[in-house]
Amino acid sequence: MALTWGIIGTGGIAHRFAGNMKMSGTKMVGVAARNFEKTKKFAQEYGIEQAYEAVDEMLANEQIQAIYIATTNNTHVDFIKQALLAGKHVLCEKPMAINTKQFDECAALAKKQGLILEEAFTPFHMPVMKKLREIVDSGVISDIKLIEADFCENIGELNDDSRMLNPKLGGGALLDIGCYPICFASLFMDEIEDISAVCQKQNGVDVASSVVLNDGKRLASLSSSFLTSLPRDAVLSGTKGNIVVEHFSRSEKFIVDVDGQKQEYVVGDSEQAWNYEVADFNRYVEVGHDDGELEQSRKIVQIMDQIRDKWQLVYPFE
């Protein structure tokens, strides 16, 4: 089924989402954000029927079935609850919630309302990930013993007032980009038994970190940074070979290497990441449940809670 959408937020990620939705012909009925002039321009650019000055006005529109939230991290939970109480399904940008307590509150409300709530983690929805799981399960590289994944992007001169570094807005590299390596690793790990984590801080939030997860059978070495850039590749290392996943956050290709013999797999299109995400979301609404993604998201926020505990990083709105 094809849903009609409303969008909260007009920042960079909202532009990418709306652009993809426009190209795919998805019906976008409304958009709301703080700056009404920008909101009107956003609506005009993407063919959205109505720009709203207030979120509650948009949520009152009975045409809108689903809401996409792309605002600063500190506002996600309030907007999620507001949308669910208005009877709308919700797709929220990561992090859906700052901590597990907030996450559980949102998940419980969605269940009570009989609505779908999902976190916008693209790795869950890329077709190549299904093929990757198939290859891993075939045993071609045998048991995975080490996972490596980095999401490091040099964002230039760091301004303490920026969204990225403002603790009042839920800033920091872990929540913004470090969640992706954790997301990828968690897909191939059992329950985490031990976590090691170090970070560099600026303005009270992390700007670079190195994390090691241990589930008793394998390790995951993960890093995130606003200070440097690295290829966004991930590696699954088994006792018989390795798999390199290119641009793992929205991949379309991986390479299996066993004894120097390499085989490349290309599945899907990285440029269609948001369309895959929305297609799955539409299906979840139609059948009344997801494929376990929300529970997987909960595991990710639990891990991030433990990491921040080690760093003594608490946000002022927690």
Describe what you observe in this structure.
This protein is α/β, with parallel strands linked by helices and 318 residues long. The protein folds into two domains: 5-121, NAD(P)-binding Rossmann-like Domain (Rossmann fold); 123-269 and 290-311, Dihydrodipicolinate Reductase, domain 2, CATH 3.30.360.10. It has nine helices and 14 strands. The chain has helices spanning 12-24, 36-46, 55-59, 76-85, 100-113, 127-138, 173-186, 273-287, 293-311; strands at 5-8, 28-32, 50-52, 66-69, 89-92, 117-119, 144-152, 194-202, 205-214, 219-225, 234-238, 242-245, 253-258, 261-266. Strand 13 and strand 14 (261-266) form a beta hairpin. Helix 7 (173-186) crosses helix 9. The model has no long low-confidence stretch (mean pLDDT 97).
* The first-level CATH class name of the largest domain: Alpha Beta
Helix content: 25-40%
Number of strands: 14
Number of helices: 9
Strand content: 15-25%
Largest sheet: 8 strands, mixed
Order of helices and strands: EHEHEHEHEHEHEHEEEEEEEHH
Show unreliable segments: none
Averaging pLDDT over every residue, what do you get? 97
What's the number of structural domains? 2
Determine the N-to-C terminus distance. Answer: 37 Å
Q: Any idea what the radius of gyration is?
A: 20 Å
Side by side, the strands of the main sheet go 8-9-10-7-11-12-13-14
Shape: globular
CATH architectural name of the largest domain: 2-Layer Sandwich
Q: What structural class do you assign from the helix and strand content?
A: alpha/beta
- Kindly report the name of the CATH homologous superfamily of the largest domain: Dihydrodipicolinate Reductase, domain 2
